Amino acid sequence: MIHSRVPVSDLREHVGRTVSVCGWVNTLRLQRHMQFVIVRDHTGMVQVTHKRDNGPLEAQFEALTPESAVKITGRVVDAAQVKLGGLEIVPEAVEVLNPAVTPLPIDEHTGLEQRMDWRFLDVRRRPATQLLFAVQTTLEQGMREYVYAQGATEMHTPKLMGTASESGAEVFEVGYFGRSAYLAQSPQFYKQMAIAAGIDKVFEIGPVFRAEPSFTSRHATEFTGVDVELAWIDGVEDVMAFEEQMLAHTIAKVADAHGEAIAEHFGVEVTVPTTPFPRVTMADAQEILRKGGWDPAGVKEDLDPEGERSISAHIEEATGHEFVFITHYPVGIRPFYHMRAADDSSVTLSFDLLWKGLEVTTGAQREHRYDVLLKQAAEKGMSPEPMQDYLNAFRYGCPPHGGLGMGLGRVLMVMLGLDSIRQASFLFRGPNRLTP
Amino acid sequence: MIHSRVPVSDLREHVGRTVSVCGWVNTLRLQRHMQFVIVRDHTGMVQVTHKRDNGPLEAQFEALTPESAVKITGRVVDAAQVKLGGLEIVPEAVEVLNPAVTPLPIDEHTGLEQRMDWRFLDVRRRPATQLLFAVQTTLEQGMREYVYAQGATEMHTPKLMGTASESGAEVFEVGYFGRSAYLAQSPQFYKQMAIAAGIDKVFEIGPVFRAEPSFTSRHATEFTGVDVELAWIDGVEDVMAFEEQMLAHTIAKVADAHGEAIAEHFGVEVTVPTTPFPRVTMADAQEILRKGGWDPAGVKEDLDPEGERSISAHIEEATGHEFVFITHYPVGIRPFYHMRAADDSSVTLSFDLLWKGLEVTTGAQREHRYDVLLKQAAEKGMSPEPMQDYLNAFRYGCPPHGGLGMGLGRVLMVMLGLDSIRQASFLFRGPNRLTP
Q1: Which domains are assigned to chain B?
Q2: Where would you find this protein in the cell (chains A, B) (predicted)?
Q3: What ipTM did this prediction achieve?
């Protein structure tokens, strides 16, 4: 690294010494007698104060442009009057490592879509966005701490599939040496194969692909999925218990590391959830919602976004809890591989987890009995041939298992109170967006 | 989880008690007076010993098939004569949670390709393969420990790109809502955009895709890449220093957690490398190799696999070190975005890292000066238009930076002494393999 470089957040320890700060020109105030440059790095901002003297430094400061990458060497001086940390740098040398063209293509008034075209500038100039990726890192760290402690193995399953097996629709097709491959919509089949392979607890964070022409604030064609699959479960309750413990651990870690900064930059408080999270069956949820006037036609099998928000609000009012597991989804709106309840074959042993009204996870116990699985696939009109590799995994001793898939962007979205999943990704991908 | 379940490795603590073991039927020995079942779970194997008594248990044992998933409840008994841990289980109940069809499609004599068709059975039945994924998990954990401590941010960059920009060849094309997208060959452009976005140190583990019709033991069409990119470097030496520290930390962690098991199952010793690793320029490496008779025609610009093995062997003999950085690759065999040496424009500030003769990493300082980058792209015959989004990142203050890309499978391959990258993946993908 640039050897004498000191991050802005550490400057206080260097008062009286000459150091280098590497960062970007945040603002320039070139006055008649004085030149002020605010330099920003990934840790904060500092004022560089130069008194005009007709020397070479003065000319260099005059030529600076906003967002240029600079290395400024100078003495750190205590300066109680300076708002930024009560110190300033008196410069001795300025090096422009990469000049920025003027004017910048975006400013504070630019709308979201155009800011996304210049995402690197948008992220760099907004400390809140920098914080978002720090929070994401801590989130993943927290989840890994928890799952590793439970004995999970981190797997990387293929994103290229030979057949569009899980569901023909909404799958991207890839040209593959004269034939077709398909992008995995989730690691579902492969993480179940890992269970059949004797991996006791599977964990994966990776991209998932959905060829859905959805333009909502919560959909993307590519997003980061967090997947867990657990062998030898007694029932779906084991999966829900695992998830709520994982989230409680992880959110506590985020609150500890970034709670204050999140409150400052996003205006939201990170509440560490208590466990267990509330649980409500789909049937009960619908009854509660219908009493409140939801779905007056009485035709909806699934919760729509309005239903999700309402039931979450209801549960939060009743229990004070931001999370709720909706359980026992009807067979008609769940995939063939979800296990059905032994005492009611019209419902699956599945759940969604809602957080403040948004679905962040889908999970289930999986059907591991080959004959039952075949029957359920047939009922959904699916042909066994294209998924024979998957089905074979259930013919040679596949243990009972279940798991969950979580959208990392959605978790960030709710945690930070963002309006759109676009803001929770570094480089968003949607039906109309493949760049930058 | 199945509530009374005890992992095999913990049975010693339960001698005298009744517990349940969940696992697979490893072997059956059904003798005239006695029935022995070896049950295997993810932690080890245990003998279940049943004396024939014409009861229902006897019939259940008689009907068992190898690899069936079973839950066996019984008393743990000290039995010094039993090789497996000096104990056995005297069964009280047997539950077949998922029976295995006989015969199994693979056995110990099956070749690699067919074992790959039944990878879940191959992995489940071979403790060495189970260990491989445990080692992979520890590897990633070790790398993350190191990079987080250095202040890295974990990023997830898109795998879907709007243009096949890095290099037109060897890119998979994806149908994308009536137009084409391309699968990222590496996070190269996006991790550099993250640097331009003010992320100080970028870390990503994720899939990369290569549409190369290569059938060697070291190539795959999809593999797991480990990517690092560092801002504000003084030079490529900073990148090499980062990598050697990261690897030394990580390999020490693997040696500590799995060294003995690796020696037992793979017959190789994990040596924790000292730092710094040896460095040799490409020019010097070629001179050394040519003295030994390599490339008698004198035409090779790059090292071929034989050259990589020979120079590694030479360095190991000279220094005792398993690793060697080959530096200063000629411009002709490096991409346009590698920075060139200020004092010799025919070489790049780049490196490969070889481990025991296999390339495991490529790295470089990147060219961050827009005009120089444009010129270098033009020299390689590349048109700027399709990569304008990437190039724009260098027009608004992109700091000096560099990074590396490492193949996780290759690291595992060398560490465990595997013959082929196929063995280092859970589900391998090659030109002829998209299943299971």
Answers
A1: 8-98 (2.40.50.140), 120-424 (3.30.930.10)
A2: Cytoplasm
A3: 0.96
